[in-house]
Amino acid sequence: MNNEDLKKRVYAAADYLQKVDVKTIPVGEKQVVDEGFFFTLQSYPTKAESDAKFEAHQKYVDIQMLVKGKEFIDVAPTDTLTVKEAYREEKDVAFYEAPERFTRMLVNEGSFVILYPEDAHRPTVSAGEPEKVMKIVGKVKI
Question: For residue 56, is pLDDT > 80?
Answer without folding.
Answer: yes
